[in-house]
Design the sequence.
């Protein structure tokens, strides 16, 4: 009897020990939209199939909840892997010393050559702190049937053509552009593109880094052009009442024709509307200025306080593979950063990919490129401007005051 | 909060004889100071919890308001800078004014609640069902109330617009309009708050002395005079509670703002509680958010002081 008990004890200990040595990889993710969730679950399943000895523990957070939670768990109880965004949003945590330097993974996997488009966004001071799994282009999603109804045969490529398209749509009783600014950021997409098209990427980057005043004449010029659209009734009425999804029914019901947004909107169109939706890039405003685009990049990072960094590195290497990226980006309706991966065969992904290949420079996005507090004040300003274009001087002064508080006087 | 000692109704001498011999063996010190020590022992657990979870966070939060802090990383001591920025921040003043709107307009809830309660306080078939239906808005979560009202106000597809359009009335988009957003939210907030006050008054009306009303009627009082001179004084307790919960409800208004407008359009419907949250969570300005919290705390203190003073006065009056 005594031996039996000992045997059970030994067995228990062995079991316990083995469950510890079975390699656990804890991953916290903010990929809570249906398509994102699917993509992440598939990726993890494939990884576990390739490495049967590793057990991935997947914790899913809502986007906003994740922003709050990560500031806690990165310090107190860090997972081995997290999803986050490349660019300035990553840099914040790198500066706080909370993200692991993963340049070794980039070197070992030869990612510098395989993912040339996202090296910059993944680097701080020449070192890489994350591995991107998808990025995406912004552009106009438009109803082709409504364009035809208004007598428009070609998509606009210049500012004049764009304004003409809007006039024709308005004449046909269709609001040219739908937008929901309750979330604020959809308006920032407009500002980014207008500024990139008018002032170019260097100026835009300086503005994001707080090196230029918002009261600068070049910024004012952007708002002058934007005001042409506002005053010509380009945008749906009462947009501050709608979130970005709530503005979609205007397009579904045929009351509005275009929406400047990113690929995550594709899966939100009803089936019958999606068939009629096509894509075109933001038109050129100043032909002297090159083509610069917003291409927000989503990536994996290893927290400095992670326990199982070795397997986390295995995961990064796995997620960077061409075939893996093809599948992940395909599910997401986004683009794979790996040049050997193939872009999903549909008009949205192809169009976005083509536009980004032409681009002379890439930014992330307004609220990813600049300080979060400044981004909030800025985007509220854009929203107010869209409702009251005449108040632009006060608005810019207010944004400038916030810029000066954060980055100092110029 | 110091809790007044419960009066056990048993003279102290009796307790001593009841406890008998054992007590006599206790130290002299304990026996002499029993009246001081025992209450302290009983209060200690509650006081420890209260200190840990209420007083300590308050002190911590006030201390934070003198720093600049991202939520992680090093804290930087900035003295009164946060307050200086706060008083120069137009959004702070908008939020403060909106808080005043909330406070004033929310006082309609006890008034409306009283009239609904008077209306429902009758014996007709099915009145219980009607009462519970009127109480329903308070049962529903504030988040749901906010969502329903946001849909109700929707300028393109909402019920309000759909109802008024055939009549040729065009109302502004309430939640998208800087002049209307706050009032739109307050009306949504009044809905459940009125239901709550109504329940308070309904229970109050149960304890109204019918003989007094009878007597007043005999003396010729009716209608408004009867209500003001005879019924309302008897509802004083209910009115006091209704006022207390309404003022607290107005000052901590947060969930409806968060759900319906997120403080927008461009901060026109912001309130202090939401602006604090916005700064802490989305702008990572913990120090600044703490400064807002401290101001809100000071405002509430005025009211809490009034409340406590009244409570103490009532207790003294009762004795």
Sequence:
């Amino acid at each position: 009897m005594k031996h039996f008990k000992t045997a059970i004890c030994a067995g228990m200990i062995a079991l316990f020990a083995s469950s510890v040595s079975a390699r656990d990889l804890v991953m916290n993710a903010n990929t809570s939209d249906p398509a994102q969730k699917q993509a992440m679950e598939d990726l993890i399943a494939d990884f576990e199939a390739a490495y049967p000895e590793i057990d991935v523990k997947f914790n899913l957070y809502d986007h906003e909840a994740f922003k709050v939670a990560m500031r806690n768990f990165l310090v107190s109880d860090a997972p081995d892997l997290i999803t986050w965004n490349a660019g300035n949003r990553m840099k914040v945590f790198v500066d706080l010393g909370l993200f692991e330097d993963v340049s070794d993974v980039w070197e070992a996997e030869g990612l510098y050559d395989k993912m040339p488009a996202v090296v910059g966004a993944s680097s701080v001071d020449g070192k890489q702190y994350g591995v991107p799994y998808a990025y995406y282009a912004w552009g106009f999603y438009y109803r082709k049937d409504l364009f035809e109804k208004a007598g428009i045969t070609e998509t606009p490529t210049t500012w004049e053509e764009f304004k003409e398209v809007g006039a024709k749509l308005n004449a046909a009783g269709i609001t040219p552009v739908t937008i929901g600014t309750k979330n604020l950021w959809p308006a920032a997409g407009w500002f980014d593109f207008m500024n990139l098209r008018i002032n170019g990427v260097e100026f835009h980057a300086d503005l994001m880094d707080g090196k230029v005043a918002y009261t600068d004449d070049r910024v004012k010029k952007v708002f002058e052009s934007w005001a042409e659209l506002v005053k010509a009734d380009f945008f749906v009425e009462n947009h501050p009442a709608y979130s970005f999804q709530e503005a979609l029914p205007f397009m579904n019901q045929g009351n509005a024709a275009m929406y400047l947004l990113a690929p995550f909107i594709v899966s939100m169109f009803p089936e019958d509307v999606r068939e009629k939706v096509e894509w075109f890039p933001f038109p050129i405003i100043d032909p002297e200025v090159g083509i610069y685009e917003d291409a927000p990049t989503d990536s994996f990072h290893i927290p400095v306080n992670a326990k199982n960094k070795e397997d986390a590195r295995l995961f990064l290497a796995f997620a960077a593979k061409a075939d893996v990226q093809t599948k992940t980006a395909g599910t997401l309706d986004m683009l794979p950063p790996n040049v050997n991966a193939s872009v999903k065969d549909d008009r949205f992904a192809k169009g976005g990919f083509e536009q980004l290949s032409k681009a002379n420079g890439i930014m992330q996005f307004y609220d990813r490129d600049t300080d979060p507090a400044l981004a909030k004040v800025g985007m509220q300003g854009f929203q107010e401007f869209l409702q009251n274009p005449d108040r632009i001087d006060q608005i810019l002064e207010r944004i400038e005051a916030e810029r000066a508080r954060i980055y100092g006087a110029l | 909060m110091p809790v007044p000692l419960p009066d056990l109704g048993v003279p102290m001498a009796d307790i001593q004889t009841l406890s008998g011999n054992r007590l006599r063996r206790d130290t002299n010190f304990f026996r002499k100071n029993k009246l001081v020590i025992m209450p302290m022992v009983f209060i200690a657990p509650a006081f420890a919890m209260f200190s840990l979870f209420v007083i300590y966070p308050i002190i911590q939060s006030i201390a934070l308001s003198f720093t600049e802090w991202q939520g992680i990383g090093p804290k930087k001591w900035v003295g009164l800078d946060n307050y200086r920025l706060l008083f120069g921040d137009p959004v702070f003043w908008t939020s403060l004014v909106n808080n005043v709107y909330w406070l004033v307009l929310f006082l309609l809830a006890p008034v409306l609640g009283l009239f609904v309660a008077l209306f429902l306080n009758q014996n007709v078939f099915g009145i219980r069902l009607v009462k519970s239906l009127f109480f329903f808005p308070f049962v529903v979560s504030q988040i749901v109330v906010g969502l329903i009202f946001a849909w109700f106000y929707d300028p393109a597809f909402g019920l309000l617009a759909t109802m008024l359009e055939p009549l040729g009335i065009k109302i502004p988009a309430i939640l998208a309009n800087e002049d209307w957003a706050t009032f739109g939210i307050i009306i949504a907030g009044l809905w459940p708050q009125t239901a709550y006050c109504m329940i308070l008054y309904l229970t109050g009306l149960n304890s109204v002395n019918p003989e007094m009303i009878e007597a007043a009627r005999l003396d010729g009082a009716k209608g408004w005079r009867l209500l003001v001179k005879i019924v309302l004084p008897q509802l004083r307790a209910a009115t006091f509670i209704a006022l207390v919960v309404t003022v607290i409800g107005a000052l901590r208004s947060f969930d409806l703002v968060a759900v319906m407008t997120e403080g927008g359009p461009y901060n026109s419907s912001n309130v202090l509680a939401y602006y604090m949250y916005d700064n802490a969570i989305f702008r990572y300005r913990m120090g600044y958010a703490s400064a807002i919290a401290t101001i809100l705390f000071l405002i509430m203190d005025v009211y809490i002081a009034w409340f406590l003073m009244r409570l103490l006065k009532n207790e003294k009056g009762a004795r």
